[in-house]
Amino acid sequence: MSAYLVAKALPGAIGLVAVTVLVRIAGVEEYGRYALLLAIATLGGVLSSTWLCQSILRMTPDGGLSAADLARVRWTYGIGSFGFAAVALTLGVARSGTTDIWSAIWSGSFLIAFHLYAVELALLQAHLKSVRFAVVEVARACLMLGLPLLLSLLVRPPSHGLLVGSALAYVGAWALLVRRRIDPDKQSSGPVPEFDLGRLLRFGMPLSAWAGASQALSVIDRYAVSHVLGDAAVGGYAAVYDVVVRGFGMALFPITMAVHPRIMRYALAGQHWQARAVLLRAGRAHALLGALLIPAGYALKGILTERILGLPAGEFDELVLPLLVGAFLWQSALLVHKPLEIANATRYMLVGMLLALCVAVGGNLLLVESVGLIGAALSMILSALAYILFIVFVKHRMALALPRPGPTETRHE
Q1: How many Cα atoms are found within 13 Å in the side-chain-facing hemisphere of 411?
Q2: Alpha-carbon distance 189 to 186, whole Å?
Q3: How many CB atoms lie within 10 A of CB 106?
Q4: Sequence-separated (6 or more) residues with CB below 8 Å from residue 50
Q5: Helix locations, 27-100, DSSP H
Q6: Which long-range contacts (CB under 8 A, 24 or more apart) does 370-374 make?
Q7: Distance set, CA 17 to CA 6, 22, 207, 216, 243 (Å)
Q8: 329 falls in which pLDDT band (50, 70, 90)?
Q9: Where residue 254 falls among pLDDT bands split at 50, 70, 90?
């Protein structure tokens, strides 16, 4: 577990440094163009790779993927899903208002690199190679800092250099993975069942849709800000968003990651009150950190936007508080929907995310034009509240809340 926490925390910290450096080097407008195109390309990568990654995690090494089956999943079906994502990417880049063909080419290059890296990383994680997983993730984060920085100085416009550097960073990390690729047949300890593509799709596609809808939230607000207020506005918004949301995630997500296996273990053993106790302790830890970080972040908003990010004085300070609240709510949502994960009712999580996506679209359409930048941040809060309230409603309607201990139960860890 410690290696996986390092794999989240250290790349997150490097990512925060990368945002602050790239905004200053490339400039706010160029960073804005880069941030929008990168978000669209990442959405395409998530849609193309998540179902493959989750299927690999579920079915490798002993769950039904031999070496031949894995090659088929990687390439035959991977290319098909990539083709779908490439179409979505083309439409997204075209609708972003970017008519430069090179923007589409570099965004597509990033999508390919993201897809290849994500699938190989899932295979590594499936074989429980946690230390190597952490090393590769840290290497990717370092490359995501160094290569975009270097190429933004060499390529014009700088936004193209940032995109090319980001794509090359993922290619470099992918190359580290394929140097010592794991053979599933050597790892398997039992007979391998017959390959079933339908099973992979039924399992993986809802998760891919959920992840895609979640990633789309960061596309919608940047798209709205870009079209209504311009590249400089989306550059400042994306910079503040990236630092605040990533920073909050670094503080709170390790708690969610640490308690997840314990909650699942207790729930699968029928010890629901223990699972509930762990979930409540995690919720209290989230609340405590939120109560500390939100006021602290708001008090330091000027230092964050002006001194750290180098943004114009006072123009983006108003974003800090609503983004802090939105980041806290979305991190809390990962705990709120745990009972649905336990009950395998993940389809309701997907419905809730689609509802949140609709709220985000409506909020950005109405608020960005009427109240400006802060409208995008307020839409993040509204979408998170919509998701949480829907999940709570479903839990109570289906009686999925984890029970309290009965009078005859003994509390032992």
Answers
A1: 10
A2: 8
A3: 26
A4: 118, 204, 207, 208, 211, 212
A5: 28-59, 67-71, 78-95
A6: 372/229, 373/225, 373/229, 373/233, 373/236, 373/237, 373/316, 373/318, 373/319, 374/318, 374/319, 374/322
A7: 16, 9, 30, 24, 9
A8: very high
A9: confident
Q: Name, in order, each residue with C-beta under 8 angstroms of 282's C-beta and a sequence gap of 6 or more.
A: 255, 256, 259, 335
320 contacts 373 by C-beta, under 8 angstroms: no
* CA 10 remoteness from chain centre: 16
Backbone angles phi, psi at 227, to 5 degrees: -75, -35
DSSP 357-404: HHHHHHHHHHHHHHH-HHHHHHHHHHHHHHHHHHHHHHHHHTT-SPPP
Prior bond of 157 cis (ω within 30°): yes
Whole-Å CA distances, 350 to 192, 211, 354, 401, 410: 31, 9, 6, 18, 36
Residue range 46-82, pLDDT digits in tens = 887 887 777 776 665 444 455 566 666 655 555 555 5
In whole angstroms, how far apart are CA 144 and each of 161, 176, 249?
12, 14, 19
Quick one: how far is CA 43 from the chain centroid?
Answer: 10
Tokens coding 233:
């506005």
pLDDT of residue 295: 93
Q: Give CA–CA dist 371/33, Å, rounded.
A: 22
- Token duo for residue 313: 């004085």
